[in-house]
Design brief:
mainly beta; Nucleoside Triphosphate Pyrophosphohydrolase; two-stranded antiparallel ribbon; 14% helix
Length: 152
């Protein structure tokens, strides 16, 4: 049995202030106007923390400080590669919001989350970002379809 697996490492960060969270209207998806939390790929020559700081700067214009790791989102892709999203959060940042090639970024009031067009299991990820009950959102393939589950 092989103990090594090819892994694609990415990150995502919930940036928040007061009763608002930062979301990105993600371009190039099957979900027009779909909202996600910003994030991206980890480069070969950088630390995990440096990668999330860089990605937030590139995608939002903000320089974040002290990102706190809070969980994972992961699944096995069809080619067998494991895709892992490291989840961070912070309310420490400087700078001004700036859209990127990835999409428009804006502050969403928390009381609007239920009606927002959040895609790709962002609601489940909020349970990881906001609480202590869950630390992982894992997808399994069941009957040819992905089925996601929050895990403690």
């Amino acid at each position: 049995m092989t103990r090594t697996t090819e892994i694609e490492l990415t990150n995502m960060c919930l940036i928040y202030k007061d009763d608002k969270i930062l979301v990105q209207e993600k371009k190039g998806t099957r979900h027009p106007g779909g909202l996600v939390f910003p994030g991206g790929h980890i480069e070969a020559d950088e630390s995990l923390t440096d990668s999330v700081i860089r990605e937030m700067k590139e995608e939002t214009g903000l320089t974040i400080k002290n990102p706190i790791p809070c969980g994972f989102k992961d699944w096995i892709q069809e080619d067998g590669t494991r895709y892992i999203v490291l989840l961070y959060k912070t309310n420490e940042f400087v700078g001004s919001l700036k859209d990127s090639d990835e999409g428009k970024v804006f502050w969403l009031d928390r009381n609007e989350v239920n009606d927002a067009n959040l895609i790709w299991n962002m609601r489940e990820l909020l349970e990881i970002f906001d609480g202590d009950q869950y630390s992982e959102f894992f997808f399994r393939v069941e009957e040819g379809k992905y089925s996601g589950q929050l895990l403690g």
